């Protein structure tokens, strides 16, 4: 049963893909912040403290995005099980591994 959606983020798959893109952007922001922090020469400065806070927040965001992607993956798997949206190759593999009576 394939469902068609009118909006780009209306399915679990598209939400999962969006979270992946957002995770890439967060990783880029973390890398940039780490580079800026390394380039800051003054040990005691408000800029250095602010960069440390930014780095902490971006790292937390990355953790939340990874968790959200895992949750979306679980939901996708459960939907496939509930609506029997499994591929033929998966069904064939199950038949091969099923013990003979």
Structure description:
The protein has 101 residues and is mainly alpha-helical. 74% of the residues lie in helices and 0% in strands. The protein has helices at residues 12-39, 46-82, 88-97. The protein is elongated, with a radius of gyration of 22 Å. The longest helix is centred in the middle third of the chain and has 37 residues, at 46-82. It starts with 11 loop residues before the first helix and ends with a helix. Helix 1 (12-39) packs antiparallel against helix 2 (46-82). The chain is built from 3 helices and no strands.
SSE topology:
Layout: H1 12-39, H2 46-82, H3 88-97
- The Cα radius of gyration reads 22 Å
Task: Summarize the main sheet.
Answer: none
Q: Beta-sheet strand percentage? A: under 5%
Number of helical segments with 4 or more residues:
3
Identify the notable features of this structure and list them briefly:
101 residues; mainly alpha; 3 helices
Please sum up the structure shown.
The chain has 101 residues and is mainly alpha-helical. The protein is built from three helices and no strands.
């Amino acid at each position: 049963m394939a469902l068609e959606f009118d909006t780009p983020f209306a399915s679990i798959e598209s939400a999962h893909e969006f979270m992946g893109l957002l995770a890439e952007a967060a990783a880029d922001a973390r890398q940039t912040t780490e580079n800026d922090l390394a380039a800051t020469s003054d040990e005691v400065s408000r800029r250095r403290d602010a960069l440390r806070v930014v780095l902490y927040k971006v790292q937390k965001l990355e953790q939340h995005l990874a968790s959200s992607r895992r949750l979306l993956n679980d939901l996708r798997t459960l939907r496939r099980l509930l609506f029997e949206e499994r591929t033929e190759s998966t069904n064939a593999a199950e038949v091969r591994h099923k013990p003979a009576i």
